[in-house]
Amino acid sequence: MRTFNERVPVPEDFGTPLIKVIPGTELDLELRFESVHEGILVSGSVLVDVTGECSRCLETFEDELEVDVQELFFYEEPPADFLEQEEDQQRWVEHDSIDLEPVLRDAVVTALPFQPVCREDCEGLCSECGILLADEPGHHHEVSDPRWAALQGFTGEEN
Q1: Whole-angstrom Cα distance, residue 41 to residue 70?
Q2: Which of 22, 25, 75, 144 is the most exposed place for a label (fewest CB within 10 A)?
Q3: Quick one: which of 65, 80, 71 has its CA closest to 42?
Q4: Shortest CA distance to 132 belongs to which of 151, 147, 145, 119?
């Protein structure tokens, strides 16, 4: 078993359109490499800073994400009954080395929120006028249903 504690630069395409890891920032890796019968088991955690756009208020925000990683890199093709995943999802030891980039990309990108928010209690934008609701608490619009417009004369109220 060997441990690997390192900071490595982030390659391109670590994210989604709303939230991503900025290329050039660093991944903080704490990984353990264990030799097992089938190959090399890589496990540990990845800590990374992410930048996103809130899906409610559209403001830019930054956050920190920690992701657990566990992947088995096979020395040789395992027996057919052992394969539970598709062939293209298997990882292999090639020329006494392993490529961690796809594993790290998969782990980080799948851990990113589908609809990121700047904070859990973000109220977002007003659906009528687009104003940021956090700036104006209690903001609302009087909206009357046009189907009831003919009955407004009976109450003496006007809209």
Answers
A1: 7
A2: 144
A3: 71
A4: 119
Strand partners, 60: 53
pLDDT in tens, 9-42: 988 878 888 999 988 899 999 999 998 888 888 8
SS (H, E, C) 85-124: CCHHHCEECECCECCCHHHHHHHHHHHCCCCCCCCCCCCC
Tell the residue number behind the tokens 């589908």, with chain if given.
114
pLDDT tens-digit readout, 68-102: 999 888 876 655 555 555 455 667 666 667 778 88
17 token code pair: 């359109």
Question: Is residue 67 within a helix (H) or strand (E), and if so which, with residue range?
Answer: strand 60-74
Q: Return the structure tokens found at 118.
A: 């700047």
- Output DSSP code: residue 117: -
**Bridge partners of 39?**
74
φ and ψ at residue 146, rounded to 5 degrees:
-65, -20
Would you say 105 and 16 are in contact if contact means Cβ atoms under 8 Å apart? Answer: no
